[in-house]
C-alpha cells in the first residue's frame, strides 16, 4: 500500500521533472515566434470577443481542448466534421450535443489564416483558446507549448472508450487518466475546471436523486430544474458552481467538501477516498491549486502530439486538406 502510493507520487513528480527539463515532448512556447509572431494576439482578441458575447464560451473551449487531447492525443481530431462516409468524434457520447465552441475555433482559424496562412495547426489553436478561456474567466495563465500538427483521422471508437463519463467512480477516473499518463493529482487538479461552466440534467440526474454523498438542500435546488423522469428536462442546464459559475476560482473544492459536487465524478474526489486530503489543500491554498492546474494542463496538452512532418496543418479545422 505505502510502496504503491509512493510509486504513484514518484510517477507524478517524474513526469513533472521531464516536462520542466524540456525532455517531455517536442513542443515549445516559442514555436511560432518567427513564423507567426502575432498568433497569440489574434487568438486572444478573438477569444475576448467570444467571451464578451457569451462568457460561458471560455469554459466551453477549455473543455473542447480536454476532449481533443483524450482522443488520439492533442491533434485537432475532435474538430473534424462528419462528411460523407467519414465519421468523426463529434457525435460520440461525451461530445454529441455537449461540446461547443467549434465556431469560435473556426473564427480564430480564419483570423490566423489571414496573417499566417498555412502555418498554425488547429490543435495549437485549441490549446491556446483553452488557456485564454481560463485566463479571461479569472484563472491562472501559462505559456502554452506549441508545435502540434493536425490529424488526418479521428476516432469515434476511442472517443467512446476514452472520454470518462460522469458515472465513473474514483478508481475508474484514476485509470482513465493513468491511460493518458496523468496521475491522480492531475485528475484532481484538472477537475477544478468544473469551477466554470454548466452541465445538462441528464449528466447529473442520477447523482442528485440517488447519490449517497449529496447535501440535501443542494439536491433539492437541482431537482427543481431536473425532473426525475428522463427524458424530461434532460438538456436543462445547471452551473457546476452555484456562487461563482463563470469565475475560475477554487470554489469547486469547497463545494466538494460541502457535498455540493454536481456530477458523481466530481463528488467521488471527496468521498472518503485517496483525493480527500488534496481537495482540502486546494480549499485552503488557492495558489497551490492554480500551480497544480497549470502543471496538469501542460501535461494534458502534451498527450501524443503529432510533430515534425507527421499529420498536416489543416486549412479548415473541420476537414482534412485534400
Ligand atoms: C474527470 C473526468 C471528467 C468528467 C467525467 C467530466 C464530465 C463533464 C460533463 C458531464 C460535463 C457537462 C457536459 C454537458 O452536460 O453537456 C462537463 C462540463 C465541463 N467540463 Fe468536464 N469532465 C471531466 C474532466 C474535465 C477536465 C479535465 C476539464 C478541463 C481541464 C473539464 C472541463 C469542463 C468544463 C469547462 C465544462 C463546462 C463546459 C461548458 O459549460 O460548456 N472537465 N464535464
Ligand atoms: C447525436 O444527437 C442527435 C440529436 O439529439 C441524435 O439524433 C443522434 O442520434 C446522436 N448521434 C449519436 C451517434 O448518438
Ligand atoms: C436511481 O437508481 C435506480 C436504481 O439504479 C434507477 O432505477 C433510477 O432510475 C435512478 N433514479 C434516477 C432519477 O436517476
UniProtKB/TrEMBL annotation:
The cofactors required by this protein are: heme b; Ca(2+)
Q: Domain Plant heme peroxidase family profile, which positions?
A: 26-321
The uppermost taxa in this organism's lineage are: Eukaryota, Viridiplantae, Streptophyta, Embryophyta, Tracheophyta
For this entry, the protein name equals Peroxidase
Q: Which top EC class is named for this enzyme in its record?
A: oxidoreductase
Q: Give the signal sequence positions.
A: 1-25
Give the intrachain disulfide bonds: 36-116, 69-74, 122-317, 201-226
MF (Gene Ontology)? heme binding; lactoperoxidase activity; metal ion binding; peroxidase activity
Question: What does the UniProt cofactor note say?
Answer: Binds 1 heme b (iron(II)-protoporphyrin IX) group per subunit.
Amino acid at each position: 500500500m505505502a510502496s504503491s502510493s509512493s510509486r504513484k507520487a514518484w510517477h507524478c513528480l517524474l513526469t513533472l521533472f521531464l516536462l520542466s527539463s524540456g525532455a517531455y515532448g517536442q513542443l515549445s512556447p516559442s514555436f511560432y515566434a518567427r513564423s507567426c509572431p502575432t498568433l497569440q494576439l489574434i487568438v486572444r482578441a478573438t477569444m475576448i470577443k467570444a467571451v464578451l458575447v457569451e462568457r460561458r464560451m471560455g469554459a466551453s473551449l477549455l473543455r473542447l481542448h480536454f476532449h481533443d487531447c483524450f482522443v488520439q492525443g492533442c491533434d485537432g481530431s475532435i474538430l473534424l466534421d462528419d462528411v460523407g462516409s467519414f465519421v468523426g468524434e463529434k457525435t460520440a457520447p461525451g461530445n454529441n450535443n455537449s461540446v461547443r465552441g467549434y465556431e469560435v475555433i473556426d473564427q480564430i482559424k480564419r483570423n490566423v489564416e489571414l496573417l499566417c496562412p498555412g502555418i498554425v495547426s488547429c490543435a495549437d489553436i485549441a490549446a491556446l483558446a483553452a488557456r485564454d478561456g481560463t485566463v479571461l474567466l479569472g484563472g491562472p495563465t501559462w505559456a502554452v507549448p506549441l508545435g502540434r500538427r493536425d490529424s488526418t483521422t479521428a476516432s469515434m471508437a476511442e472517443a467512446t472508450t476514452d472520454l470518462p463519463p460522469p458515472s465513473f467512480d474514483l478508481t475508474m477516473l484514476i485509470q482513465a487518466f493513468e491511460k493518458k499518463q496523468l496521475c491522480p493529482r492531475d485528475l484532481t487538479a484538472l477537475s477544478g475546471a468544473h469551477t466554470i461552466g454548466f452541465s445538462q440534467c441528464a449528466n447529473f440526474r442520477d447523482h442528485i436523486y440517488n447519490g449517497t454523498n449529496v447535501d440535501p438542500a443542494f439536491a433539492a435546488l437541482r431537482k427543481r430544474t431536473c425532473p426525475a423522469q428522463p427524458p424530461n428536462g434532460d438538456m436543462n442546464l445547471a452551473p457546476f458552481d452555484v456562487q461563482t459559475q463563470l469565475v475560475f476560482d477554487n470554489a469547486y473544492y469547497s463545494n466538494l467538501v460541502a457535498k455540493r459536487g454536481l456530477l458523481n465524478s466530481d463528488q467521488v474526489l471527496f468521498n472518503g477516498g485517496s483525493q480527500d486530503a488534496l481537495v482540502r489543500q486546494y480549499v485552503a491554498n488557492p495558489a497551490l491549486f492554480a500551480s497544480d492546474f497549470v502543471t496538469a494542463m501542460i501535461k494534458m496538452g502534451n498527450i501524443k502530439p503529432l510533430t515534425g512532418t507527421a499529420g498536416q496543418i489543416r486549412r479548415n479545422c473541420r476537414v482534412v486538406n485534400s
